[in-house]
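Hi everyone,

Forwarding the result from last night's run.
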Amino acid sequence: MQRGNSPETARSAQDTAWYCFQLGKPEMGLRYVAQAVAIWHDLDQPAFEAQALSIQAWLHLELGQLEEAVALAAEALDIADQSGDPRTRSLAINVTGVIFWMSRQPPLAIDYCGRAVALAREAGDASFECWWLINLGGSHAEAAYLALDAGDRASFDAAMGPAIDVTRSAYALAQSLGDGWAERLCLGNLAEYFNAAEDFIGAEQFLARFRAITSEDDARGEGHYLDILGRTLVSLKRYEEALVPLQHAHALASINGNVETLMFACLYLSKAHEHLRAFEPALDFHKRYHSLHQQFTAERAQRNARLADIRYETKKLRMLLDTEAVRTAEIARSFEALQQQTTLLTEAANTDPLTGLGNRRRLEAVLDAVDAAGEGYALAVLDVDHFKAINDTHSHIIGDRVLIGLGGLIKGSLRGADLAVRFGGEEFVVLMAGVTCAQAKRACERMRLTVARHDWSAVAAGLTVTVSIGIGVSVEGPDARDILEIADRNLYRAKQGGRNRVIVSPRPAPPRLR
């Protein structure tokens, strides 16, 4: 497109940039919008220049370029306020609200997006009103998700209600406008919100409406739909059916680099495979999810850190810093809370909720570090003897209490450097660093006796609990996973040998003298 100083050229470039945004092609959109900004500036059209700057800010936000987005949004706000045009101001204020939404600052996001909706209505622009309502609904939903992360179900319900109501209003407006892009966005968001509220049937009904829209969808919209569909089908326990959309969503997210969609696709592919008893792909996808979750959480924390550290240079935002000190303090408090939540989430992801010990993911991370350190260690695999009989005789609740009690006994017998995890079911793994085979066996014998001699009558009358233990030591194999397999084979030998015993690998026989 050749540059020219005509309004038609500027308007065409600006519209093309907006279409690129809708299609999820921000890099291409930035090329066009820069041309529009320059032409509107040359033509001394501040309202249109502010609109183009707002779109430019939004495109930078899509690319994760927060500093550029904030600086451009500030400039757009300043010019829009000077222009006095309500439509232009609604766009600039909405983009500022979206920046707060993406930075997990829902109170500010709700405030700005709500003001943007009001200004769009004042300007009589139904399309802007529809789109900003979608963002307002997303901001309310963000407040709900933060409440859910904090375990506050009442606050979750209180925030999710407005999110659903506002998005329903946006959907009705999109239908009246014949805006298929906005309709799909509303339906995908409503399905996501209903999933979060555990109304999976309602979520599936919204997805069915999504499929019924005949206008062509873009790759980003299709990825969002496939991701939500897969999650919904997993929640409905239709695991085989869920694999197809989840695999497609995974492929699309891998191509377009959408970390959040890729992360959730891996999580729900892991869940679906696990329920289908395909444990190897389930574990593989869960490892990928864990890695992506850490990446996503770190990037989000960094983005919030950058937001708190940005120094606004324009006159408009210098004034905002003076007059909205309370809001600035709220951003800092929210960021501190996000850091705490990040720490809690990371810890929770590596902790077994029943026993409070580490879980399989924690063990896998530590085993990688153990192999890298190259120091001696032993791995012990413990299994509760006749655990199925305990469940069948006393109930699964009693079985859970046995596991909780066993976790406490194991933890109490460890040295500070040791690690105990619940590996799955009634199986536990203990990592002992810097021990010989004989030392590991003595430690495990003490554990075995502690369990066998423990008074289990407080859990259930007449209950006795014993464990079988298999040990592998680092000199027996090339890496920790091989040692874990050796320990597991020795556990099997302990079971076969009568249970309630500790087994190590047999020593090779000495060579015979001639």
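The CA atoms of residues 456 and 463 lie 6 Å apart.

Cheers,
N.
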